[in-house]
Design brief:
The complex is a heterodimer of chains A (628) and B (316). With 628 residues, chain A is an alpha+beta fold. Chain A has helices at residues 2-11, 13-36, 47-72, 75-81, 86-119, 126-151, 157-174, 183-189, 202-225, 228-235, 240-263, 294-315, 360-375, 386-400, 405-419, 423-427, 429-436, 438-455, 458-470, 477-485, 488-496, 500-517, 519-522, 584-589, and strands at 275-279, 282-286, 323-327, 336-339, 347-351, 529-536, 541-550, 557-564, 578-583, 591-592, 597-598, 602-611, 616-619, 623-626. Classes of the chains: A alpha+beta (628), B alpha/beta (316). At the A-B interface, α1 and α4 of A face α2 of B. Chain B: One of its GO terms (molecular function) is ATP binding.
Chain lengths: 628, 316
C-alpha cells in the first residue's frame, strides 16, 4: 500500500501541488472578500461557500487523476497483474484522495478560525471548531464519495453529473424540497451554520454519511468487478455519436422538466367555511369573520365576482388566479396586503372591510394589477410593458365604476410630473414605481393610456390590453423566447398603428399639459424630503434615526417605512417592510428606529405622508443604502 | 521442425505448478472458455497455442487474477483456488500482450516501484537484466520502442526469480529480429534456469522453437495437450498410392470408412492429392498401418495446428 501511495504521490505531484496552491489562493480570496465585504457577521459565514466551491473544483479533479486516468490509460491492468489486491488499490486511492481533500481544506479552516478569533474577536472554542469542522468534514466525505463513484464510470461520468443535477432539480421542483434545508447541503448552508454551536445536525450528518457509504460501496463494487474488456470500453473517450446522444437526452430532459413544471398545479389555498363565488375559471373565497355581518360579506363577494368576471371576460383570460380574502380589521381601511403563498395556488388578500367606509375603486385599482401579476407568473416585472399594467388599472376603474376619478388621476399625474419624470423612467418602471409609489405611478401610466386612446382608438387600445395582459404566458423559457420574438414596441405598433417612440413623445406632451392645467390645484401639496442619520455606538454597531427635512410646516402624521434588504436582494417586499408612524412635529426633530444595526447592513427606507388632496401616500422616495 | 531448434534434453517433468479444472468464462452470451483443463508442470516450457480469439488471453488473465472465471478452479503450486492470492502472484512472472506501464517512469523507477510488491526481488539481477537486454535504465517508458517495452516487461517478470513465467503473446507486434531476440532470451532462461514457462502464441513457429509441451486451444477448450512428439505421433497424414488413378476418390472414401471403423478421427480430407489427415493414439496407428500400402507423411507442428484448429474446408 505504501509503495502504491508513493507511486501516486510521484505520479500526481505537480498537479496536486498546483491544486493545493490554487485552493490556498481561493481561500485567501474568500478570506479577503469576507474581511472587506459588506454586511458580514463573522468569518464562518462565508466559509461554507468556499467549501462548496472548493469541493466542486477539487473533488472531481482529484478523482479524475486518481481513478479515471488510471482506467483511461489502462495502467490499472498493469496494477492488477502485480501481487496487489484490488481492494488494496481501491483503499489506497480512496484514502489518498480524501486525505488530499482534507489537506486542501485544512489551511483554509485554520485561516478562517484565525479570522474569527483575531479579526472578529470572537471566542473560538473547541466546540465551535468541532461543529464547523464536523459539518464541513461530513459534507466533504459525502461529496467525495459521490465523485469517487462517478470517476469509475469513465466516459459516462459527465453524463452522470448532468443527470444528477437534473434529478436534484426534479426532486426539488416536484416535492418543493429545498436542498439547502435537507441532507448534505443543509450541513453547509443552514442559516445557523456560523452561529449555532449548541446542537449538531446529527440527522443531516448521518444521512450524508449513509449516502457516502452507499456510494463508497458502489465504488468498491465497480473497482472489484471492472476488469478486462469492460474497463477498456468504459475508459475510452466518448464518440461524437455518444456525445450527441447524451446532449439530446439532457436537453430533452430539461425541456420535459419545464413542461412538467408548466403542468404542475399546487393545491389551492383553503379557507374554512368561506363564502364562495365561482364561475368558469374564476373562484373567489372570502373568510367569514365576526366583525362583519354575513350579509355584507355576501354582498362583497357578489360585487367582487361581478367585477373580476368582467375583467376575465374583457381580457379573454381562460382562468383567473383563485382569490382568497381574509378580513383583518386591524389594517388601515384603504391598505391591502397580499400574502405570498409558497405551497398553494392563488392570491391571499388581507383587508379591513366595513361597508360604510368601503372604497371599491381603491380596492379594484390595487387588486387588478395583483391579479395580472400573478396570472403572468410575475413576468410583468421583467417586461418593458410594465407601465401598461399600471395604466390599465385606473383605466379599468374609470371604465367600470361610477365617479369622477378623472380629476383625481390628473392631479396625481400632475404632482408626479412635477417631481420629475423622464423617458428613462418608462424603461425602468419598477424603480420609478418605487420612487413615487404605486398610486402616482399608475396616474402617470394612465396618462399614457389616455394619450394612446386619443391618438389611436379605444378598440385598438383594448386589443393591445387583451394581447399584452390577457395572454397567458408560459412558465418557462418559451415566455422569454416569445418576448424576444415579439418585442413590446412592435406588438404596440401592430395593435395601435402608432410608433412607440412617437407615442412616448405624445405621452409626455400630455403630461406637460395636465401638469400645466392642474398646477394650481397641486401647489399646496407638499414635497417630502427626509434623511437618515447614523449614530455610531461602537466600531461595528450603529443606531439609525429618520428625520423629516421638508416641508417644515407639514401637519399631520408621518410614516417611515424601512426594511433590511437580504443579501443580493434588490426588490422591496411590501410584506417585509416595517413602519414607524409619528406626528410630523416629532419627525422634524428625528425619530429613532428601535434596535441597533451592524455596519454594512443593507437597508431601504422612505418617508410617507397621506395626502387628502390626492387620496394617496406621498413618498420621499425609497433609498437603498448600506449602513456606514 | 528441426532438431537444431528443439530444446535439447528437457528436464524431467515434476510436480504440477499450474493447473486449471473446468474453467468456464463467458462475456454475455459468448462463451470464451468451455471447461478448460490445463496443466503446467515444473520445469516445462508450455506452448499455449490457439487461433486469434480462441481464449488464450482470457485464460492467462484468469490465471493472473485480472479476470474471474464463471466456473472452475485453478491450482497454483498445488493449492486449489478460484483466483490467485498475493502470495501466489509473488511467485509468478507475467508479460502481457500489451504493456501498460506508467509512461513517466524510467526503466529503473519502474523496477523500484514493482520491487516493493515482491519479497524476492533482486535489484542487482534486474539491473543485469536491463543491461543484458540493452535497455537504458534511465530512459523513460514513453521513449521506449515496442520491442524494448516487451524486453522491459520480461526483465520485470524475471527479476524476482519467479517459479513460473507466463508470457501472453509477448511477440505480437514485434519485427522478426526483435521477435527472434526475445525468443532467444526466453529459451536461454528456460534452459539455463529451468524456468517453468507458459508461453501463449498463435505463431506455431515460436512455440515449436522453445516448447517441450503444447496445449492447443480450440473454441474454449484444449483439443490437445502433450509433447510435440506425441502430437506428431497422434496426427498423421496418409496419402493413397497412385492418387491420380480414376478410382482414387472411391479408394479415399473406402480408406476413410476403414479409418472411422478403427476409431480414427478424420481431421481433413483432400481428394485432389488423395490424402487424409487423421488423429488416433500411437498404438492404434501402429496396428492400423500394418500391411497397408498407403504412404505416411510427417506433418510439421504448424500443419497439425492447422488441422486441429481450422475448419475442414480450408486446404492444407
Amino acid at each position: 500500500m505504501i509503495g502504491l501511495a508513493r507511486k501516486e504521490l510521484r505520479h500526481h505531484a505537480l498537479p496536486l501541488a498546483l491544486m493545493v496552491t490554487g485552493m490556498s489562493l481561493l481561500a485567501l480570496l474568500f478570506f479577503y472578500i469576507t474581511y472587506a465585504g459588506a454586511n458580514r457577521g463573522n468569518f464562518w459565514e462565508r466559509y461554507p461557500m468556499f467549501i462548496m466551491l472548493g469541493s466542486l473544483v477539487a473533488t472531481p479533479y482529484l478523482c479524475h487523476r486518481l481513478v479515471s486516468l488510471e482506467y483511461a490509460t489502462k495502467t490499472q491492468l498493469f496494477l492488477y497483474s502485480l501481487p496487489l489486491r484490488p481492494a488494496t488499490i481501491f483503499a489506497t486511492k480512496w484514502f489518498l484522495s480524501l486525505a488530499f481533500l482534507f489537506g486542501c481544506f485544512l489551511p483554509s479552516f485554520l485561516l478562517f478560525a484565525w479570522g474569527v478569533a483575531w479579526i472578529d474577536r470572537m471566542d473560538v472554542t473547541w466546540r465551535q471548531l468541532l461543529f464547523v469542522g464536523g459539518r464541513c468534514a461530513v459534507f466533504v466525505i459525502g461529496f467525495h464519495a459521490l465523485n469517487f463513484a462517478f470517476a469509475f464510470l469513465g466516459r459516462y461520468r459527465l453524463a452522470a453529473y448532468g443527470f444528477t443535477a437534473l434529478a436534484m432539480l426534479l426532486v426539488s421542483n416536484h416535492w418543493d424540497l429545498d436542498h439547502n434545508q435537507n441532507g448534505p447541503f443543509s450541513l453547509l448552508f443552514h442559516p445557523r451554520f456560523a452561529f449555532d454551536f449548541a446542537e449538531f445536525p446529527w440527522q443531516d450528518a448521518l444521512a450524508t454519511l449513509a449516502g457516502a457509504l452507499v456510494f463508497n460501496l458502489i465504488s468498491l463494487g465497480m473497482a472489484l468487478t471492472r476488469e478486462g474488456s469492460v474497463a477498456s470500453m468504459v475508459a475510452i473517450k466518448m464518440t461524437h455519436r455518444e456525445k450527441v446522444f447524451f446532449t439530446a437526452i439532457f436537453i430533452s430532459t430539461v425541456l420535459s422538466i419545464m413542461l412538467f413544471e408548466e403542468k404542475r398545479t399546487r393545491p389551492p389555498y383553503q379557507i374554512e367555511d368561506a363564502i364562495v363565488r365561482e364561475s368558469a375559471g374564476l373562484s373567489i373565497h372570502i373568510g367569514r369573520t365576526t366583525s362583519v355581518a354575513p350579509g355584507d360579506l355576501e354582498q362583497l363577494a357578489d360585487w367582487l365576482h361581478t367585477e373580476i368576471s368582467a375583467l376575465q371576460s374583457f381580457l379573454g383570460m381562460p382562468f383567473v388566479p383563485r382569490i382568497n380574502i381574509t378580513i383583518r380589521q386591524d389594517l388601515d381601511p384603504d391598505k391591502f396586503e397580499k400574502a405570498y403563498l409558497v405551497g398553494s395556488e392563488g392570491l391571499l388578500v388581507k383587508l379591513a372591510y366595513q361597508p360604510d367606509t368601503w372604497r371599491p375603486e381603491r380596492f379594484l385599482q390595487w387588486l387588478v394589477p395583483e391579479i395580472l401579476e400573478d396570472y403572468s407568473n410575475y413576468r410583468v416585472y421583467r417586461e418593458p410593458s410594465f407601465w401598461l399594467l399600471d395604466g390599465f388599472a385606473p383605466w379599468w376603474v374609470q371604465h367600470r365604476l361610477e365617479g369622477d376619478w378623472e380629476t383625481l388621476f390628473e392631479k396625481r399625474a400632475a404632482y408626479a410630473y412635477a417631481l420629475g419624470v423622464t423617458q428613462a423612467d418608462v424603461d425602468g418602471w419598477i424603480h420609478f414605481r418605487e420612487r413615487l409609489g404605486v398610486d402616482l405611478a399608475q396616474a402617470i401610466a394612465y396618462q399614457g393610456v389616455q394619450a394612446l386612446v386619443q391618438r389611436s382608438s379605444t378598440q385598438q387600445v383594448e386589443a393591445l390590453f387583451q394581447k399584452r395582459l390577457g395572454l397567458y404566458p408560459e412558465r418557462d423559457v418559451r415566455a422569454f423566447i416569445r418576448e424576444q420574438a415579439h418585442p413590446f414596441p412592435s406588438v404596440f405598433q401592430d395593435h395601435t398603428e402608432v410608433d412607440y417612440a412617437a407615442f412616448r413623445t405624445l405621452w409626455f406632451q400630455r403630461l406637460q399639459e395636465t401638469h400645466a392645467r392642474r398646477l394650481e390645484s397641486i401647489a399646496a401639496i407638499p414635497r417630502l424630503e427626509a434623511e437618515m442619520e447614523v449614530v455610531t455606538l461602537s466600531e461595528k454597531t450603529r443606531r439609525l434615526r429618520f428625520m423629516l427635512q421638508q416641508p417644515q410646516t407639514l401637519e399631520g402624521r408621518l410614516r417611515f417605512y424601512y426594511l433590511r434588504l437580504p443579501r443580493y436582494e434588490w426588490l422591496i417586499d411590501p410584506n417585509e417592510r416595517q413602519v414607524i408612524e409619528v406626528p410630523t412635529s416629532q419627525a422634524l426633530t428625528g425619530v429613532d428606529i428601535g434596535g441597533t444595526f451592524s455596519k454594512h447592513t443593507r437597508f431601504a427606507w422612505t418617508a410617507a405622508f397621506y395626502s387628502e388632496e390626492l387620496q394617496c401616500e406621498l413618498l420621499s422616495g425609497w433609498h437603498r443604502t448600506e449602513v456606514p | 521442425m528441426t532438431s537444431e531448434t528443439r530444446p535439447q534434453t528437457p528436464p524431467k517433468p515434476r510436480r504440477t505448478l499450474l493447473a486449471t479444472k473446468g474453467l468456464v468464462k463467458s462475456f454475455g452470451n459468448f462463451q470464451v472458455l468451455r471447461k478448460l483443463d490445463l496443466s503446467v508442470r515444473e520445469g516445462q516450457v508450455y506452448g499455449f497455442l490457439g487461433r486469434n480469439g480462441a481464449g488464450k488471453t482470457t485464460t492467462i488473465q484468469i490465471l493472473m487474477g485480472i479476470q474471474r472465471p464463471d466456473h472452475g478452479s485453478i491450482a497454483y503450486f498445488g493449492e486449489q483456488r478460484r483466483a490467485p492470492r498475493v502470495s501466489d502472484k509473488q511467485h509468478i512472472g507475467y508479460v502481457s500482450q500489451e504493456q501498460f506501464f506508467y509512461p513517466w517512469m524510467s526503466c529503473r523507477n519502474l523496477g523500484q516501484f514493482v520491487s516493493r510488491f515482491y519479497p524476492n526481488w533482486d535489484m542487482a539481477y534486474f539491473a543485469r537484466l536491463l543491461d543484458l537486454f540493452s535497455l537504458p535504465s534511465k530512459r523513460k517508458v514513453v521513449n521506449l520502442s515496442q520491442g524494448m517495452r516487451v524486453k522491459l516487461a520480461l526483465a520485470l517478470a524475471l527479476a524476482h526469480r519467479p517459479k513460473i513465467l507466463i508470457l501472453d503473446e509477448p511477440t505480437a507486434g514485434l519485427d522478426p529480429a526483435a521477435r527472434r531476440e526475445f525468443l532467444d532470451i526466453v529459451n536461454d532462461q528456460a534452459e539455463r534456469d529451468h524456468r517453468t514457462t507458459l508461453f501463449s502464441s498463435h505463431i506455431v513457429e515460436e512455440v515449436e522453437r522453445i516448447a517441450d509441451r503444447v496445449g492447443i486451444l480450440r473454441e474454449g477448450s484444449l483439443c490437445f495437450q502433450g509433447s510435440p512428439e506425441q502430437l506428431a505421433l497422434e496426427v498423421r497424414q496418409i496419402v493413397l498410392p497412385d492418387p491420380l488413378r480414376p478410382d482414387a476418390a472411391q479408394r479415399l472414401k473406402a480408406l476413410r470408412r476403414d479409418a472411422g471403423h478403427a476409431g480414427f478421427h478424420v481431421l481433413h480430407e483432400n481428394a485432389r492429392n488423395g490424402s487424409l489427415v487423421m488423429r488416433a493414439q500411437p498404438d492404434q496407428w501402429q496396428q492400423w498401418l500394418q500391411g497397408r500400402s498407403e504412404t505416411q507423411v510427417k506433418l510439421s507442428l504448424e500443419d497439425i495446428f492447422l488441422a486441429l484448429t481450422v475448419d475442414r474446408g480450408l486446404r492444407l
